[in-house]
Specification:
By secondary structure, this protein is an alpha+beta fold. Helix content is about 30%, strand content about 25%. The chain contains eight helices and ten strands. It has a six-stranded mixed sheet with strand order 2-3-1-4-6-5. The protein has a four-stranded antiparallel sheet with strand order 8-9-7-10, with helices on one face. Strand 2 and strand 3 form a beta hairpin.
């Protein structure tokens, strides 16, 4: 099975989000929206839903009118294909290439590709840093679409998007130190200011090895050194069953985890 975790630059308008979700038909597993990030994560399966969702987003959204704390390049901002079950990474890469060619041809949206191997492939943070500077698109026009911007299309293994909120706003020096202490080869981290507090926004890129419990503990330890306290955690999207089962059930509520928020549970639900 092929999973696609589509990041759309809209997180506020519930009517519009409902319209976007409807475009995915029966292939939608989850939607997570954040008005502060002004961003939504649509977890879908297959290749048809992401094309329909992208078309609707390009028709209805305008990046020029967008504001939010999360960095973005386009209205259809990030489109990663993730092989699950018996699928291979080669099949995910083929789906990446098909989608990138399609959105460039059908909608004239520039495409930046990224891949699964940090040692050999361009990574998403590289695109965010260098797009339109030293990095030109892999498909499509050489300049951003006037309303849709550009899209980052990749193939990767499963990851977990995970936010931890502090009770205080760290200054720039402390925020930089916290990022340094939390970051590992399994955790990518940003710090964002939201409502006068610091949010630690993470991608757990090796979740079977570095899961939400470890990430939460690393943030908690670092924040304590700065006289700050963790007040809550937030899972963005879904986790694999295997990751959840590695964590004691007594910790699930504190970490914002639950059985019905696994990929396997949602897939079973749409197949009934």
């Amino acid at each position: 099975m092929l999973e696609c975790v589509v990041n759309i630059s809209e997180g506020c308008d519930q009517h519009l989000l409902s319209t976007l979700a409807s475009a995915t038909g029966d292939d939608l597993l989850d939607v997570h929206s954040d008005p502060h990030h002004h961003r939504s994560v649509f977890t879908t399966i297959g290749e048809n839903a992401v094309r329909a969702l992208s078309t609707k987003a390009i028709e209805t959204l305008d990046l020029g009118a967008h504001s939010g704390v999360h960095p973005r390049l386009g209205v259809v901002d990030v489109v990663p294909f993730v092989p699950l079950g018996g699928l291979t990474m080669r099949e995910a890469l083929d789906a990446r290439d098909r989608f990138g060619t399609w959105i460039a041809d059908a909608h004239a949206v520039p495409v930046f590709f990224y891949g699964p191997d940090p040692a050999k492939d361009r990574q998403l943070p590289d695109i965010r840093r260098h797009a339109w500077k030293s990095l030109t698109p892999d498909r499509g026009p050489s300049a951003p679409h006037p309303t849709a911007g550009a899209v980052c299309v990749g193939a990767r293994s499963t990851l977990i998007a995970y936010n931890v909120w502090l009770d205080a706003l760290l200054d720039d020096d402390d925020a930089a130190l916290l990022r340094q202490q939390v970051r590992t080869d399994g955790i990518r981290v940003l710090t964002l200011e939201i409502d006068g507090r610091t949010q630690v926004s993470m991608n757990l890129v090796a979740p079977r090895r570095v899961g939400p419990d470890i990430a939460y503990a690393r943030v908690e330890d670092a924040a304590t050194q700065m006289s700050a306290r963790v007040v809550r955690a937030e899972l963005v999207g879904l986790v694999e069953e295997e990751v959840l089962r590695r964590i004691p059930e007594s910790e699930w509520k504190r970490l914002d985890l639950a059985q019905d928020r696994t990929i396997e549970s949602r897939v079973a639900g749409i197949r009934r």
